[in-house]
Design a protein that fits this description.
The complex is a heterodimer. Helix content of chain A is about 65%, strand content about 5%. Chain A is mainly alpha-helical. The chains are: A mainly alpha, B mainly alpha.
Chain lengths: ~230, ~325
């Protein structure tokens, strides 16, 4: 076990000549490197308290999401009707289905794990919120998948789901009975949302680091102590 | 820039870690996770597969249940079907329009997918059948009649078709009645449906390509056949079925809380007429609450009170670090 000063993981000074010092490019690079130096973006050490199986569920969720995208991409190659006509297509569809089931299973455990760790502490509220929004967008991605299967399940689920959507006026713009629209949302818009939000969520985790145990470290400020907050 | 001080709050704040660090190979962890999940996915896919019950076609429905088809068709023609009465986003009626207090968001959003069942589901498809003189004559008679006469014929047919039967040879027999040309029209529509001519492209007015099945699905959902199939597969709302799929597959269990509200009062009693809207509003509020947990005093203290974190970080609290 090694002790490092996390705050010390600041990038080397980005020296450039005066000719380009005012560039937006240079300023953006300096901002990004200062926020996320390589040692923090892809760390090789973590605080010693990170020693529980619950920590693995974030990585498992990303792994399952990768399986969802890969199996979905295979389905996309031959088009939406392929899996009804081919044994191989049905197997790829099965891979897609079980990837999705595991993705949600891991994500929900990850979410509850973070809840019981109060992982929003220490200015990590946005990390929590992006996680919840990712879950929501994923529910939308799954629903659009179920209603664009072009089989009995999609007929049943779409005719049932339309009333909930219509009741808030959402159905006017998001028509679950429109196969073409749902397929576009399922294979393009919502996956982009899930992947982008997952990326943002992970970057936030890397930027802030993992939350310390409640009440830790032992020398944490007592109830009557104060912390500074800049405005 | 000003600086102010705030009390350290155990449910909101976290002090920087000043203890030890341990080696952590993130690339190895992600790779091992991906391999493990891939193996698990393949095993589950091989062991359980995935459901794929064929879609119900209008042709399949009308051949399997001619009486239900004819009974549904007359409700489309006389404008009493669920689709015809629905309201926004399909038409300007208000049969399924729901409110949140005095506000109807459906009405505010308005009609975006115009569906006129008498014309779209019956009169337009029949008008395309140019090679059947009796049907052409019936349609001309119907179109030339006054709305009052049309309504009288429709009512008479609706009464008669309630006692309709099907002969062993597959012919629909509707008791005699004063329903004018409507009998020939619905029989013509049934024949179209049984031949497959009424399926998706026809109902959706698509000249060739189509990707929007709004009209076909609404027509299908107006009948009793689709509902009977859903019931047989244990998929109806009161069976918690909306989150399930056919067979014993897990479906969408993450929708359990959404489906749960449909099982209990007041959503099943005093709020039943607006149940969809009220459940959606409740879920929006609960979701907002989940997203804003870090800011809600009391709720954000639950982790500290339940002390589950003592198990997660047991090594730390046992002083092993």
């Amino acid at each position: 076990m090694t002790t490092i000063e996390e705050k010390g993981a600041v990038a080397e000074v980005d020296e450039v000549d005066e000719e380009v010092a005012g560039q937006w490019t240079v300023k953006i690079r300096r901002f990004l490197v200062a926020k996320l130096p390589p040692e923090r973006l892809i760390p090789d050490r973590q605080p010693a308290y990170m020693a529980s199986w619950i920590y693995i569920f974030g990585a498992l969720t990303i792994a399952a999401l990768t399986c969802v995208i890969l199996s979905g991409s295979l389905l996309a190659i031959e088009g939406p009707a392929w899996w009804h006509l081919s044994g191989l297509g049905l197997f790829v569809n099965s891979l897609h289905l079980w990837s999705v089931e595991l993705f949600f299973f891991f994500m929900v455990i990850h979410l509850w794990g973070k809840f019981f760790m109060a992982a929003w502490r220490g200015n990590r509220q946005l990390t929590w919120i992006t996680g919840v929004v990712t879950f929501l967008v994923s529910v939308g991605a799954a629903l659009t998948g179920y209603v664009s299967q072009t089989n009995f399940d999609s007929q049943w689920i779409s005719t049932q789901a339309k009333d909930g959507m219509n009741s808030l006026g959402i159905g006017a713009y998001f028509n679950v009975l429109n196969f073409g629209q749902m397929l576009m949302w399922h294979i393009y818009l919502l996956p982009i949302g899930v992947v982008a939000l997952t990326g943002l969520h992970v970057l936030m985790v890397r930027t802030k680091g993992i939350v310390t145990p409640i009440g830790a470290p032992d020398d944490a400020p007592a109830e009557d102590a104060t912390t500074a907050e800049a405005h | 820039m000003s600086t102010r001080t705030k009390k350290f709050n155990l449910d909101r704040d976290a002090a920087p870690w000043k203890g030890g660090y341990r080696p952590y190979d993130i690339a190895k962890e992600l790779t091992v996770c991906f391999i493990a999940v891939t193996i698990l996915v393949v095993l589950l896919a091989v062991a359980f597969g995935s459901p794929d019950d064929k879609a119900i076609s209008i042709k399949g429905w009308s051949n399997s249940s001619q009486v239900d088809f004819a009974q549904t068709a007359i409700t489309e023609l006389d404008g009493t079907s669920a689709s015809a009465q629905y309201g926004p986003p399909y038409n300007t009626n208000s049969g399924s329009t729901q409110k949140i207090g005095p506000i109807s968001l459906e009405k505010i959003a308005g009609v975006h997918h115009a569906v006129n069942p008498p014309y779209d589901f019956v009169l337009y498809p029949l008008s395309t059948q140019t090679g059947v003189p009796a049907l052409k004559a019936a349609l001309a008679t119907f179109n030339a009649a006054s709305p009052k006469q049309q309504a009288a014929w429709e009512a008479a047919y609706e009464t008669a078709v309630a006692k309709a039967t099907v002969t062993p040879s597959g012919t629909l027999v509707v008791p005699a009645g004063n329903y004018g040309p409507v009998g020939v029209m619905i029989a013509g529509l049934t024949n179209m449906a049984r031949s497959g001519a009424l399926d998706a492209a026809m109902l959706n007015h698509a000249p060739f390509y189509t990707s929007d099945y709004t009209r076909s699905l609404l027509f299908l959902a107006d009948g009793g056949y689709l509902a009977a199939q859903g019931d047989a597969h244990h998929l109806t709302g009161d069976q918690w079925g909306m989150m399930n799929e056919t067979g014993s597959f897990p479906g969408q269990p993450w929708l359990w809380l959404y489906t749960f509200w449909y099982q209990i009062p007041p959503f099943t009693t005093s709020w039943a007429a607006n149940a969809d809207a009220m459940v959606m509003v409740l879920m929006v509020l609960l979701t907002l609450g989940l997203a804003l947990v870090p800011f809600i005093p009391g709720v954000r203290s639950i982790p500290r009170w339940t002390r589950v974190y003592k198990i997660i970080w047991r090594d730390y609290y046992k002083g092993r670090l």
